[in-house]
């Protein structure tokens, strides 16, 4: 039976709200000053030009290219898929993105567009479960998830009910994650991967982010994700570092590896490289892959492409070099 660092069993943690509360509130408290200092220190690391070129291509390959607007149309989604399949139409050496992330009603459109572009290996990620609020009946959340999976979604980005979590109804959140994970199954095929979004800006404290990380991982999340991109505070270096430390410690405790996805507010190549340095220093090579680390972004790809061309040609391209998302 796997145990955590303190030797406590994990198999019977989620038997009641009280048991989950005891476990989650028994996790070590977060030293906020120390966490922020570590994140700031990692952000000052410099890398050589050759390493930067590698990091830019790696970051491109880790992007979940995202459009999550009420005004999304099939045409916009097809254009986004074309960009994800061929980020730079003039340079075939540019890697494809990891996924295109859309609302569930656009999942089928995205799946077809990627297949037509010859980029079936680019995943379709669909937000579900009453995104971005997470406030709906469980039956609605599960129907949303099943519809996205049936439409071809390879990944489901669910959002937790923060009201339930902050009220201490941990078992409700745990069981919802488990139920959504089950709804990710595909008859006769591979289940869609499940990313669990916390909305860190609404969890208020670092301790809550650590608790949400462990709760989601115990419930079976394949990835844990910082935010929806729809609130004032989204991914930050400290809150992402805290989640990285959680997945590192969870693998040490259980042997199971879980991915991390910072989303919202990461717009420049410089920011992306800082996050990759953080992954390398905190988690190591095992997580330096699109299978285990993603960026949720819409505009980040543009800056990565411009910085890539600067490294190749020695000059920045004009403002019309990349498409406007």
UniProtKB/TrEMBL annotation:
Keywords, in A-Z order: Lyase, Schiff base
Ranges annotated as spanning the membrane: none
Entry EC no(s): 4.1.2.4
Top-level taxon in the UniProt lineage: Bacteria
UniProt keyword Lyase present: yes
InterPro entries cross-referenced by the UniProt entry: Aldolase_TIM (IPR013785), DeoC (IPR011343), DeoC/FbaB/LacD_aldolase (IPR002915)
| Catalysed reactions, semicolon-separated | 2-deoxy-D-ribose 5-phosphate = D-glyceraldehyde 3-phosphate + acetaldehyde
The record's listing under Pfam families reads: DeoC (PF01791)
Q: What is this protein called?
A: Deoxyribose-phosphate aldolase
* Gene name in the database record: deoC
